[in-house]
Amino acid sequence: MFRKICLASLFFFVAGLCAQTLKSPDGSLQMEFSLAADGAPQYTLHYKNKAVILPSRLGFEFKNDKTSMQTGFSLENATTATVDDKWKPVWGEESSIRNHYNELAVTLKQAESKRTLVIRFRLFDDGLGFRYEFPQQKELAHFVIKEEHTQFAMAGDHTAWWIPGDYDTQEYDYSKSKLSEIRGLMANSITANLSQTSFSPTGVQTSLMMKSADGIYINIHEAALIDYSCMHLNLDDKKMVFESWLTPDARGDKGYLLAPSKTPWRTIIVSDDARDVVASKIILNLNDPCKIDDTSFIHPVKYVGVWWEMITGKSTWAYTDELPAVQIGVTDYSKVKPNGKHGANNENVKRYIDFAAENGFDAVLVEGWNIGWEDWFGHSKDKVFDFITAYPDFDVQALHTYAASKNVKIVMHHETSGSTRNYERYMEQAYQFMNDNGYDAVKSGYVGEILPRGENHYSQWTVNHYQYAIEEAAKHKIMLNAHEAVRPTGICRTWPNLIGNEAARGTEYQAFGGSKPNHVAVLPFTRLLGGPMDYTPGIFEMDISKLNPDNHSHVNSTLANQLALYVTLYSPLQMAADLPEHYQRFADAFQFIKDVAIDWDESKYLEAEPGEFVTAARKAKGKQDWYVGSVGGENARTSNINFDFLDKGKEYIATIYADAPEAHYKTNPQAYVIRKVLVNSKSKLTQFVAPGGGYAISIKPSAGQNTKGLKKL
Amino acid sequence: MFRKICLASLFFFVAGLCAQTLKSPDGSLQMEFSLAADGAPQYTLHYKNKAVILPSRLGFEFKNDKTSMQTGFSLENATTATVDDKWKPVWGEESSIRNHYNELAVTLKQAESKRTLVIRFRLFDDGLGFRYEFPQQKELAHFVIKEEHTQFAMAGDHTAWWIPGDYDTQEYDYSKSKLSEIRGLMANSITANLSQTSFSPTGVQTSLMMKSADGIYINIHEAALIDYSCMHLNLDDKKMVFESWLTPDARGDKGYLLAPSKTPWRTIIVSDDARDVVASKIILNLNDPCKIDDTSFIHPVKYVGVWWEMITGKSTWAYTDELPAVQIGVTDYSKVKPNGKHGANNENVKRYIDFAAENGFDAVLVEGWNIGWEDWFGHSKDKVFDFITAYPDFDVQALHTYAASKNVKIVMHHETSGSTRNYERYMEQAYQFMNDNGYDAVKSGYVGEILPRGENHYSQWTVNHYQYAIEEAAKHKIMLNAHEAVRPTGICRTWPNLIGNEAARGTEYQAFGGSKPNHVAVLPFTRLLGGPMDYTPGIFEMDISKLNPDNHSHVNSTLANQLALYVTLYSPLQMAADLPEHYQRFADAFQFIKDVAIDWDESKYLEAEPGEFVTAARKAKGKQDWYVGSVGGENARTSNINFDFLDKGKEYIATIYADAPEAHYKTNPQAYVIRKVLVNSKSKLTQFVAPGGGYAISIKPSAGQNTKGLKKL
């Protein structure tokens, strides 16, 4: 805790060389704030007396500003506080989340500029968050960030699971390497994307997962990215010091701010147990409480969609192949020749609606329903879509009526092609169109280069756009799932209508050449820490050429692994992404997708190791049912779990969907076995996991069920 | 006219070296289109057999495109047409406008690229317009303009009235020089502006007015600038060849297009009588007909405003001086200390409403009514205004009610500070707010650098924004008067709710150090050709220090010159810009401003010479009254006009407001004389015009009037 003796000394205006220390509630983490000899703010972080962050400097350079905001500070004031409370998310892994931290806020004064800067630290038992605050003051009103200089000095050449730093995409496979090896691996790690801008051979993205030689797991990310540019990390690979590297705007500036204001939180999750990392709620806790008064419109969604057939090339988003380019409001679609492969046609959509209704899904996503897809990406096209005009073969009203008659929603789709002004111009109409036609959720997309031209996907300007869409959607009681937007930073706590994001390599890449088989065992340690991902799992047919003879991609996953993802990749929005006919072929396995819950009272991480395995157990919200999911990585493994999360003395029926012994993500992905057993809180499971495999378990109280013939596990 | 023999040869696919010629309806202008030996399209223009445009090339460079669109063309087709019709503008200098031209459209094929390009020429008796058209074709869909290479090869080292080429402002005094002298005068011609970007020592803006040594007046401008970047002219001052220089976007690109599409028209007005230039309707004629179905909401507006007092520094737009910066939605204005100088307060606005009502004005403009003015420019501030929240001392509803009770409108003011995204986000609400609170006209402003950052005031992106505002305003039946927007190009024909623009150095500069006394004798030859200007004339107190002791600016104009502007600077929107107390001091002169019409059946330019003098006579719409205005330049002159525009045999009373013999814009600007005389169509007037002076005449039929004691002119 904060040392009172030090605070006292401040009253004598002693230069703030004495350190401020702060411990986490359970004492496992300790941080120290101090000013270096040159008046630079700096901090350290220790976990169980081991150094996690070596002395690391904090500060800024402003544009066209004579004084660097990096040195020459003195400590004017320091205050501490302790918070321990709970809050209930609208949806989540837990029905109640504890927010417990000790806080230190240091007020610094720079003699030369006479400016005041506050740095606020919040130390939780599982990590640290800190941010900069610029109070209202005469000496600092409008300012432009040239660079934020926040250091994270590592205590060793850790192992990292990283993706290349990039201003426009996070859709990369993760590389695992020592920090010192990043530079050598960078070029090969940058795979093609429709919009990408890398910036440094040692630049990586957050959230960045690391592990030290002595077994400490360290994760760096940010929380509450609002009207600021997205932070990357650039590594000094001689000193093993990361420094913040903000995403620039069209002119290379990194942020326009105006006091009073504050930066996002910079977060460092730390534990010697990897399960604590994936379970951490620091990032949510550092976000503001919910700002939506009436959240009754927000609900978890399990859905199917007219989507995978276009991703694989079996059908098309576009209605015609006849025109080299189309113009909204000009092209007369009633006069063009249809290509005969348009996925979003009435008949096909009805087929999905029927399938959704029959199998208990909430909704059907339909992409390619609206005009403009003939030349939708790669042209920096301004007025690319209008979001309100359907193709001739998609009858908005009839399909809405049909779906409603079966108690199914259609999920709206707003691909923007990165043309943010165009989307904003239509936004009010588009959301009103949704209100008028029975849509309550929208998937948006930002494929390709951002417009206004010169801006990046992750610059302040565009971050501000994504946030605008969230807030405008909330006004219309619309749930939003934004793809190709900036990676989430826990904003879904404040705006729980943000029920999903992409912002990582999702299942689509399995149809674009395949992802690494351990990709899904990295995501919970990285991408998912900021918020749920619309990963779109549930692929049962791994040979894509069966859908499209021209597409030879292979889904690097076993079928059982696909089932496990519904539990391991937490999201209130879960798709069953494959085609109805594939689910019909594997109806017994499909039963798990039909059964699995998507909102939870409790979550337990039973096993976790980055890139190797993640096993989670979750209790369905308001029910006694539990679901377990476990994914492995490149190699086969044996999972050992016990069921002590179950109510003591209660018997349950567990249905285990697992890889068959001969299963392999590449050669035999559809080999699975399903067995039913009785379990209780004393049960233990030893389960084979194939390469690229996994298993899923549904667990329901046996009371009132037919348990005849079932054996104990 | 088009030579039939040449057209015939095309059927044999002869390379298009044979020239296509076209004459204007009266034969005074003749143009020739041909292909150079290298297949470059080129044209010439002759006026009464004198060369106006020497052979000048036409073409484009596209970005990342292997084939330059400049050479290698063959003529595939050529068609001619003749149009002679009339149309009625919603408001204008004439109640009916004749559109009479011969047209030549050449279809060119580029062998290498297989692309087709159409160039369409329209030759009027007073000038030429031509544009490029890109038909829909497989070989050209999306493309990016690296540069448009449209040449205007001058036949001599003409005298030009020019302002520096600039991507962000037209608010410059005009320089008069030989073309060869532009380079030497450029640096001194670039005076300070809050946003300015010059690009070349020989770059100038359009409309560019020139005069040849043998007395031919030539004006280059453009018409129908829609979703394209604004054209400047860059001079090769060795060869005296101007070339189009488009305004770049944030990345330096000059336009994103998509076939089918067309460029704006490039216009060349030509005559040996300067009066034909100021009277030309080419630019309106080259724009599309009105696209607003119900134009009943559009009406001319004569107004006063809470404006000049802020411009001069007598009062302020801002409510408080207490804060270094404010934040919309954050700053609590009820808790700040007012500065006591806020102009838009209830009491002051009521005073203007009373004055407007008493003197027959339609409306009162009120600037500074809405929160955000404390740090409104110079900071690249994104969310700078919300356009819907009034300062605590401005009661929207009470003032609307008060104004309405006196049959006066309040003109809304939307300063955007160049923050176009912010304006677009609020636009729907802001226009609805106007509808809800009785406003039917808005003055918008774009002071300072454009946001998105990196864009320019005149780039395609921003041009597109201004157009969006016009069209959205029309949906709300709102009239728009945009300041600091791109200079007009006749779009008010298509969108007559665009009742005004600034886009040149307006009266405000008379309070910022003063404009050249002949400035108003240049504007009709340049800025006004594209559409009306909200010049805000009517300043009676030329010594600004009498309003604000700290402001020593002087208005370089006589009072009579100020009166003349209501006629010489045609606009359906005319302000009486000075303070009510100044009008009360000069009530006899003010009578002219009260009387003068602002919409016309007929207009005659009686005298005109760029930068020297302009004398116009206009017949009030639907009435028998005429108004004459005459402005001079730096030196005194004698104006000689006759009244043959009057109905024959009819007697009128003319009230002549003229400079007193001792008047001078600098030393004695308020010396004027008013006399009443009888005139008829045979009357002639010889009238003294002081340096920086002018005169104004109101002419009303004498029938039924008291003519006792009035002498014949």
Outline:
The first copy, chain A, is of the alpha+beta class and 713 residues long. Chain A has twelve helices and 37 strands. In chain A, strands 6, 7, 8, 9, 12, 13, 15, 16, 20 and 21 form a ten-stranded antiparallel β-sheet that branches.
Please state the second-level CATH architecture of the largest domain in chain A: Alpha-Beta Barrel
| Top-tier CATH class of the largest domain in chain A | Alpha Beta
Structure annotation, total helices of chain A: 12
Provide the domain count of chain A. Answer: 2
Which consecutive residue ranges of chain A, at least 5 long each, have pLDDT under 50?
A: 1-16
Largest sheet of chain A: 10 strands, antiparallel
The percent of residues in helical segments of chain A reads 10-25%
Domain Glycosyl-hydrolase 97 C-terminal oligomerisation (chains A, B): 599-700
Domain Glycosyl-hydrolase 97 catalytic (chains A, B): 307-504
InterPro entries (chains A, B): Aldolase_TIM, GH, GH-type_carb-bd, GH97_C, GH97_catalytic, GH97_N, Glycosyl_hydrolase_97
Protein name (chains A, B): Glycoside hydrolase family 97 protein
